[in-house]
TrEMBL record, chain A:
Name assigned to this protein: Ferritin-like domain-containing protein
GO molecular function, one term: oxidoreductase activity
Membrane-spanning segments: none
Species this protein is from: Enhygromyxa salina
Automatic annotation (TrEMBL), chain B:
A Pfam family assignment: Phosphonate-bd
Protein name: ABC transporter, phosphonate, periplasmic substrate-binding protein
Taxonomic source organism: Enhygromyxa salina
Superkingdom per UniProt: Bacteria
Length: 389, 283
């Protein structure tokens, strides 16, 4: 017989932990004699033991007799995969359990549509998440919102128009990963974490671009049907790989060029600061998209054809829309020009032409990294939406 | 002869539907035709059982005695066939505030004791009957404050005991009665702050609910029902949630040795006499 002395500790203040530990140290049928100074000990121990299927003798001192009933909860329990590396397929019966945890049998299945490693995984996931978590910045302190500047009226209008365009693109870039985030089995936690930080990045981008737009004006600029139609095709893509390809590789890849352009040609320090910081975040979004699509393409030989098809379909869907709105194009020229002086306008125009060439080069490079040959990469890049994203 | 188990149960909580729907599905998988009927109070259930509305009743200890006594008057025989492991060997306690000068039963003389609903075995009938058997007659030797919450549900609703505990802490009464498990629960959740109360007395052990049948039930059908219940294992993930909702680890064969305290109490207080008269005189 084992003896346990609870001292002054009662079962109403945690004494059951010690009783449970003592019971774990005896075999089924084993007896634990419990001593203690709490006058309610015998009353409480009887009620506690009865509720857990253990035997009880009142003594004094009272004795608890271990049964196996409480342990039976764990018969048939399974491990939710391996903590170190995700399984090929995550089971619906693991539910929300931590990877590698022991899951009680009988859990109602929790279905996540994206539960296969090949569809979503990259071995770089943990590293990419850590890098993203370390690179978070605070919009309040990272940007010198009080920096003094004075722009010609038309140039300020151009900046506001570009910000207006950026904001609606950032909203799409937030919604797309957020929607897939809720469809991915949490067994692939690094992917969930990456997408969550990515959504947080986009939330910051929305914030800083809005703040810049409203810095000197009471309202943002114009939003066109053509621009929104292009973004909506991203929201409607139900396939994770294809959505990721269109948004992250082609869209955010092109956006990267645009943000670098604004970081270089932005007419005021705040525009240059916010686009510099946003570009750093976007580079990570592009890197994750490329990384998991490379992983996926190695395992699904048909994926490249599906990606090419998605670009063509999107092109067909958008070919009768206006593409990039003139307001944005002209605003970019004027913003880069900095004044109405004809020579400056010419320089601004040349810069925007160079921007488009830069975007095209970037897309072709990334397509090549996904295994498209040069000719196919050139064709697909040329079919990418004129709205950039 | 019916080949269906129709269980009567009292709807003291919405979870009752979840429990018996779960059992119904499980019994169906085992090939037993099982259905259930819910009642708003135990007296209605016991009558309906005798009327053949159900052929098994999930009875409180008081409802069990009602069935047993009604059977005796009507020439029928009630049997307790299965109970929960947690229905066996319960006790109730009478509790006072620490430092109030109440340390033993005799100190309760002239005092006021809060109890549960008037038909609660654990929080009213058993403790009051037990005090009476120790020479402390309720109403004569001490005053009783009842908490008539969910009368007809025989104390299945915890509200009455919690009110009694609050009465005690807020010094509206000198002592309170409750089941041992609730004394532990109320002490742990702070309803009875640590060190604020002393246990003045603890009743001997008694038993709680059982599945009751009457003579005339098909023997093979009953045997199938009982053996399926006794075979339910806490290990089985399909059964475990049902057992947890119903508050047991395993089913045990019914026994009637644990109802003497309650039997004495209701004899002493005449608790169900007029109900018995009315029901047994029905045409
Ligand atoms: Fe962004
Ligand atoms: Fe992004």
């Amino acid at each position: 017989m084992k003896t346990l002395d609870l001292g002054g500790l009662g079962l109403d203040r945690g004494g059951h932990l010690l009783v449970r530990r003592a019971l774990a140290e005896v075999d089924v049928g084993g007896r634990v004699q419990v001593e203690g100074a709490d006058p309610a000990l015998g009353v409480h121990l009887r009620a506690w033991a009865r509720g857990r299927g253990h035997g009880f003798e009142p003594g004094p001192p009272p004795i608890v007799i271990r049964t196996s009933l409480e342990d039976q909860r764990w018969s048939g329990a399974v491990a939710a995969g391996d903590a170190a590396r995700p399984s090929e397929r995550a089971s619906a019966s693991w539910g929300l359990a931590a990877r590698g945890a022991r899951v009680e049998a009988g859990l109602a299945p929790l279905e996540f549509p994206l539960a296969t490693r090949d569809q979503i995984w990259t071995d770089d996931a943990a590293r990419l998440y850590a890098r993203a978590a370390a690179a978070q910045w605070d919009p309040e302190t990272a940007i010198d919102w009080g920096a003094p500047f004075e722009l010609p009226d038309a140039v300020e209008t151009a900046v506001v128009q570009v910000m207006t365009y950026l904001i609606e693109n950032e909203v799409a870039a937030l919604i797309v990963p957020a929607r897939f985030l809720a469809r991915i089995h949490p067994h692939f936690r690094e992917i969930l974490q990456i997408l969550a930080v990515q959504a947080a990045d986009e939330a910051r981008h929305i914030e800083v671009f809005t703040r810049r737009a409203l810095l000197k004006r009471p309202a943002p600029g114009l939003s066109t049907v053509g621009g929104q139609t292009s973004l909506r095709t991203l929201l409607e893509e139900p396939d994770f790989a294809l959505a990721s390809f269109l948004l992250s590789v082609l869209g955010e890849g092109s956006f990267l060029s645009l943000l670098w352009f604004l970081a270089e040609h932005g007419p005021d320090p705040i525009t240059r600061q916010i686009t510099t910081l946003a570009a750093q975040d976007e580079a990570r979004h592009v890197a994750f998209g490329l990384s998991h699509l490379q992983h996926h393409a190695e395992r699904e030989p048909g994926l490249r054809a599906r990606m090419a098809n998605a670009v063509e379909q999107r092109f067909a869907a958008l070919q009768h829309t206006a593409g990039l709105n003139e307001e944005v194009f002209d605003a970019l020229v004027l913003l880069a020009a900095g004044s109405w002086e004809p020579g400056a306008i010419a320089r601004g125009f040349d810069a925007v032409v160079a921007l488009r060439q830069d975007m095209d080069r970037g897309r072709r490079t990334r397509l090549a990294r996904l295994g498209f040959d040069a000719e196919e990469a050139e064709r697909l890049s040329s079919l990418h939406t004129r709205n950039f994203m | 002869m019916t080949t269906q188990i129709v269980l009567g149960a009292v709807a003291y909580d919405p979870k009752v539907v979840t429990i018996w729907e779960g059992f119904k599905a499980w019994f169906a998988d085992q090939g037993l035709d099982f259905d259930y009927v819910l009642f708003s109070n135990y007296e209605r259930q016991v009558q309906a059982h005798f009327d053949g509305v159900c052929n098994v009743a999930w009875n409180s200890p008081l409802a069990w005695l009602e069935a047993e006594r009604l059977g005796a008057r009507l020439g029928r025989r009630a049997r307790a066939v299965v109970m929960r492991d947690s229905d066996c060997d319960l006790t109730s306690v009478v509790v006072a505030r620490a430092g109030a000068g109440i340390a033993k039963l005799e100190d309760l003389r002239g005092k006021t004791i809060a109890v549960g609903a008037s038909d609660s075995p654990q929080a009213t009938l058993i403790p009051l009957g037990w005090l009476a058997s120790h020479g402390l007659e309720p109403g004569r030797d001490f005053e009783v404050v009842k908490h008539e919450i969910a009368v007809g549900m025989h104390g299945d609703h915890v509200g009455g005991e919690r009110h009694a505990a609050r009465d005690l802490i807020e010094a509206r009464v000198d002592a309170a009665a409750m089941i041992d498990a609730n004394h532990l629960a109320f002490s742990a959740d702070g309803t009875l702050p640590a060190g604020s109360t002393v246990i003045v007395g603890q009743t001997p052990t008694y038993d709680h609910c059982n599945f009751t049948v009457l003579d005339g039930i098909d023997a093979a059908l009953l045997e199938r029902f009982v053996s399926l219940l006794l075979g339910q294992s806490f290990e089985d993930p399909r059964v475990r949630p049902l057992l947890e909702l119903e508050g047991l680890k395993r089913w045990l064969p019914g026994r009637t040795s644990g109802y003497a305290l309650l039997d004495d109490a209701i004899t002493r207080f005449g608790t169900i006499d007029s109900w018995l008269d009315t029901v047994s005189r029905r045409p």
